[in-house]
Amino acid sequence: MASGPAPFSDIGKRARDLLTKDYTFDHKFTLTLPSSTGMGLTATGLKKDQIFVGDINTVYKGENTTVDVKVDSYSNVSTKVTVSGVLPSTKVALSFKIPDHKSGKLDLQYLHHHAAIDSSIGLNPTPLLEVSAAIGSKDLSLGGEVGFDTASASLTKYNAGIGLNRPDFSAALLLSDKGQTLKASYIHSVDPFHAVAAELTHRFSTYENSFSIGSSHTVDPCTVVKTRFSDNGKLALLSQREWRPKSFITVSAEYDSKAINAAPKLGLALALKP
User: Fold this and answer.
1) pLDDT digits (tens, 9 = 90+) for 37-53
2) Cα distances (Å, whole numbers) of residue 195 to 11, 105, 190
3) pLDDT tens-digit profile of 144-164?
4) What are the strands, taking DSSP E only, across the chain?
5) If DSSP codes are grouped into helix, strand and coil, which group holds residue 19?
6) Which of 208, 185, 206, 205 is nearest to 196 (CA)?
7) pLDDT at residue 3 tops 90
8) Mean pLDDT (the chain, rounded)
9) Fewest Cβ atoms closer than 10 Å to its Cβ: which of 56, 127, 257, 265?
C-alpha cells in the first residue's frame, strides 16, 4: 500500500516530528530485549520532578497477530491484540485496560491505493465513536476525522486537513479544534543531512497567532542535532547519539527568554537495545 495515502493522523507528521519528536525535559530510561522467538520485552522508567513512574511492556509478534501487554507502576494492565489480513487490506485491533472495565475498544484500519480509513468504537453501553479517512495518493492527500459521544449525543471533534508530500519537502494545512484552529506546517530537506521546518497556528476565537521553527542536522552517521524556537521566547536544543547499534542517548535543553530568573530545563533519555 505504499502508493496510497497515509492515514489522516499522518498529515503534517514530518514537520511535527522534526519540531517535537525526541525532545524530553525529564529523565527517561528504556531497555528493550528482543527475542528471535517473536517475543520482545521493554522496560521504561521516567522521573519527572520528584515523581518516578515505570512500566514493563511485552510484545509477541506472530505471522498475522501482535499481542501487546503493558503493566505500569500503578498496577494497571493494558492489552492490545492486533490481527491483520482478516479481510484484504484490513487490520483489526482489540484493546482494553484492567481494572477499567469500560476501557474496551475495537479499532479497524483499511488501506487502499486511493484511501486510508481508520475507525474506533468503545466497547461499553455508551461508546465513543471515531472515524478518520484520507483520500488521494502518497503525494497528495485530503482527509478528515469525526468523533461522536453516544452518551451526550454530541460531536467530540471534527477536523480536516490536506497534505502534500514530496521526497524533499512536505506541506500541510489542518483545521482542528472543531474549526477553531488553523495550522500550516512545512518541512524542507536542504540536503540529506540538513532539514528545516516551521509551523504557524491561528486561533479564530482569540485571533492569536503562534509559530515554531526548527532544524535538524546530521553531524555524522551516529549524531543528530536539532534546534527549535517558538514565538513564546522558548529556545530548545537536542543532541542524539547512537553510541551502539539501536542504542541512543539523547540530551535536551530548553531556555525560556521570558523567564530570565528560571534555570533552563534539562532532560536526558537513554535507550538501550542489546
Assistant:
1) 888 999 999 998 889 99
2) 18, 38, 5
3) 999 999 999 999 999 999 999
4) 27-33, 39-48, 51-61, 65-72, 77-84, 90-98, 105-112, 115-122, 128-136, 140-149, 154-166, 169-176, 181-191, 194-203, 208-220, 223-230, 234-244, 247-256, 265-272
5) helix
6) 185
7) no
8) 95
9) 257
The letter for the amino acid at 124 is N
Half-sphere CA count of 12, side-chain side, radius 13 A? 24
Q: Which of 6, 17, 20, 14 is nearest to 171 (CA)?
A: 14
User: Read out DSSP for 140-171?
Assistant: EEEEEEEEEETTTTEEEEEEEEEEEEETTEEE
Beta bridge partners of 22: none
What count of residues does the chain have?
274
Three cell numbers at 10?
A: 499522518
Categorize the per-residue pLDDT at 36 as very low, low, confident or very high, splitting at 50, 70 and 90.
confident
User: How far is residue 85's CA from residue 108's CA, in Å, rounded to a whole number?
Assistant: 11
Q: Which residues pair with 32 in a beta bridge?
A: 42
pLDDT for 1 equals 43
